[in-house]
Design a protein that fits this description.
Layout: H1 2-11, H2 15-27, H3 31-43, H4 51-63, H5 67-79, H6 87-99, H7 103-115, H8 123-135, H9 139-151, H10 159-171, H11 175-187, H12 195-207, H13 214-228, H14 233-249
Helix pairs in contact: 1-2, 2-3, 3-4, 4-5, 5-6, 6-7, 7-8, 8-9, 9-10, 10-11, 11-12, 11-13, 12-13, 12-14
Amino acid sequence: GPLEDAEAAYNRGDYAKTFEILRPLAEQGEVVAQRHVGLFYALGQGVPKNPSEALKWTRLAADKGDAGAQNNLGIIYSSGDIVLRDDGEAHRWFQLAADQGHVGAQYNLGVDYDQGNGVPQNYAEAVKWYQRAADQGDAFAQNNLGAMYEKGHGVEQEYPLALKLFQASAAQGHPQGQYSLAAALENGRGVDRNLVQALMWYMLAADSSRPVTEEFRNAAIVARSEVMAVVSAEEIAEAVQLATLWKSEHPQSK
């Protein structure tokens, strides 16, 4: 059907064609099409960016109970790019989507409670929602949950469990997870100190092709340099070899 045609067009990178198929479906009230049309207007994919249309179509789908659209609407309110930032409204939509099991919304809800966005800061609630998203395999949530166990925020401090979560996140190619794992290995938290392994993960985090903030990229580069300053040339060569091998074995995770 048309939704399958739209998916095929999207997968081959023809966003204009995808939008052309989806727009009439959205106008007929097809909720999945409405969510995607909203996203296309928000990102300017296959159609010029249009904030008011993005909000209109996303809200239509969200009001019908579509969890993906509810999460997208939460992101719209929390980013403040399309509408005035409203953390309370964002939280309300994340909650609706998270209650339906939407993994991204569960993570976003965890961040809300972790940072006190739109709700009073509550580490125990943050842990609860990070855990639900981590259980669904979300690399962002695995890293953040690991940090909660490392710091003892909302849970008993538990380095070995933090390490396991960082490993799970890093294995998926999540640069923050790779950085957290490197720091644990560098400092011997929950594991024997291993500077070669730490250097390997700092290298992967610093070189990641995934979108990260300038601040994060710089922190990873500095951490990498600091370890390189205290290990031998042979150990650096070994770390480079390990990082190269990891990349070749995880082509999707660079």
